[in-house]
């Protein structure tokens, strides 16, 4: 039984909600990947702490055939920033995010970085626009420092 804010929800109702949700795509592969990640970081020298950060909005279906839903929109900036800080502090991070939300090390980039930060120089080459070069270099450097 789950009890929060004076509201009591029987376990069978909670289980029923999760049972009625559509199955997670690639569930077995995701599960195996998580197990390997956690085991690797639990056995490494010094035993790294593992943290899970959720980022971006959440959508919850109101019915089994998901015509209506409750949605809270979030850009994911706080989750991306938290992930960066946890990595810097030595944590191993599981980053769960909503498609289109802000990614770690990319918070300083424009909303559509692929189209805004790069330009075509000839038929087969692209380059970073001068106006975005420092921000892009910083994001790439920080990402690869992990």
Automatic annotation (TrEMBL):
InterPro entries: CoaB-like_sf, DNA/pantothenate-metab_flavo_C. It comes from Rubroshorea leprosula. This is DNA/pantothenate metabolism flavoprotein C-terminal domain-containing protein. GO terms for biological process: coenzyme A biosynthetic process. Residues 50-96 form the DNA/pantothenate metabolism flavoprotein C-terminal domain. Belongs to the PPC synthetase family. GO terms for molecular function: catalytic activity. It comes from the Eukaryota. The lineage of its organism: Eukaryota, Viridiplantae, Streptophyta, Embryophyta, Tracheophyta.
């Amino acid at each position: 039984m789950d009890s929060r804010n004076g509201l009591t929800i029987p376990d069978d109702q909670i289980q029923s909600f999760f049972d009625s949700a559509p199955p997670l795509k690639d569930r077995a592969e995701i599960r195996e990947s998580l197990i390997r990640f956690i085991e690797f970081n639990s056995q490494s020298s010094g035993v790294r702490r593992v943290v899970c950060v959720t980022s971006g909005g959440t959508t919850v279906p109101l019915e089994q055939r998901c015509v209506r839903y409750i949605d809270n929109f979030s850009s994911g900036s706080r989750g991306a920033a938290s992930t960066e800080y946890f990595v810097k502090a030595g944590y191993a991070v599981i980053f769960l995010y909503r498609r289109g939300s802000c990614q770690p090390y990319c918070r300083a980039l424009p909303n559509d970085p692929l189209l805004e930060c790069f330009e075509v120089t000839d038929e087969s080459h692209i380059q970073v626009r001068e106006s975005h070069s420092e921000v892009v270099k910083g994001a790439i450097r920080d990402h690869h420092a992990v």
